Amino acid sequence: MPVTAVVGAQWGDEGKGKITDYLAQHADVVIRYQGGSNAGHTVVNEHGTFKLHLVPSGVFNPNALCIVGPGTVVDLPALVEELAMLEKAGISTANVRVADRAHLVLPYHIALDRLDERERGRQKLGTTGRGVGPAYSDKVARHGIQVYEVRDERRFRERVAHELLTKNAILERFGDAPLDPTEVADQVLTAAARLGDRIVDTLPLVEDAVARDASVLLEGQLGAMRDLDWGIYPFVTSSNPLAGGAAVGAGIPPRYITRVIGVVKAYSTAVGEGPFPTELQGADADRLREHANEYGATTGRPRRVGWFDAVASRHAHRLNAFTEIAVTKLDMLGEYDLIPLCVAYEIDGRRTTDMPPTAILERARPCYDELAGWGCGLAGVTDRAGLPKNATAYLKRIEETVGAPIGMVGIGPERTATLL
Ligand code: GDP
Fold first, then answer.
1. Which atom of ligand 1 is found nearest the CA of 263?
2. Which of 9, 22, 101, 281 has the fewest CB atoms within 10 Å, counting from its CB?
3. Is 26 one of the catalytic residues?
4. Burial class of residue 299 (count of CB atoms within 10 Å of its CB; 0-12, 13-18, 19+)
5. What pLDDT band is residue 323 in, cutting at 50, 70 and 90?
6. Which residue among 142, 163, 195 closes a domain?
7. What's the structural domain count of the chain?
8. 13 is catalytic
9. Are residues 172 and 217 in the same domain?
10. Cα 62 from Cα 94, distance rounded (Å)
11. pLDDT tens for residues 387-406?
12. Of residues 85, 69, 84, the one with CA closest to residue 34
């Protein structure tokens, strides 16, 4: 059985949760490899509708071990809340484990995230304010606190108090209230006690799964255009959603990842700031947003919407070598007579299919092919052969321009609305 990475191939929100939930029915282990509780992976299945922030989308399979991986940053109280939400809905979370090497998102990271966004003013990044960026900053700056450190209470309290010396100085300098070290530590230790022996060294578990040829799914957050190294810096996330990040973040040697699924929507959306060449404005944007219900899963913010951008997803393919693409939300384009698909950019009078760095991308004008729409919904379609001819032609154009074959097509939010 392969180790499969599920990777976003646009700006995020591509439907990775749905695809992971679908594949997780037959998975033994599902690992979230980066990001934090700023994610909002929507899963719609026989149990209901769920927005998962940190818990892997494999949690609905009672036989799958679900790991919050070492590459993530974990807000323990938020995780406890999420587990409680699932339990309340009748979903067992007994198989959820948290990597002891993951870094903690502490209350001061959340305070600093909000302060940073405020002080950036018009240059703000559009973060979700969950403290994820500051937690990764601390990790890289060697100020981070890892999850296992909660086990030594005295030392943990000292670490928090020490970190707060500088963090509080910054908060106060910008007019924000300082945080109390005891309260911060209490909050995290209470949550840690609730998690108990879920906090483990995940490497032996993953190593064992690979050795037994178990089916392992690696679930990414956000997408290639928000990758720290290859996305639209600085409007990126503070980790690597790419499949390369999956190996490190999950703790799997890269050569074991044999299947990489790039997830794309049939059009484009983005939450947060940064260049988005095919973005629609005004009434055109409202039409697509309303029809496709494009509001953020975590924040409820209206998503920016635009046409499919093959330059962006080809960029993702060049970095991930997708073995296949999963196209979601094809059902949302049924009402258009003509569907523009961006096949190249024009930048300063030159046509290109390469992804330029951010400030140059700001000047890119999309070059569109216009494809005929299919003018109907897709309810009741049960296989790819049953798709309207023009829908199949649209998918074929995506394959040609991105450069990878389409293995899955989503025609509804439910797990069952998936065509192989
Ligand atoms: P993720 O963060 O990549 O998991 O994506 P989100 O959950 O933020 O956004 C994807 C949205 O599209 C969710 O509301 C899903 O329920 C929905 N969705 C996923 N696939 C399909 C599909 O094929 N058709 C429709 N109509 N909705 C879908």
1. 3
2. 281
3. no
4. middle
5. very high
6. 195
7. 3
8. yes
9. no
10. 8
11. 999 999 999 999 999 999 99
12. 69
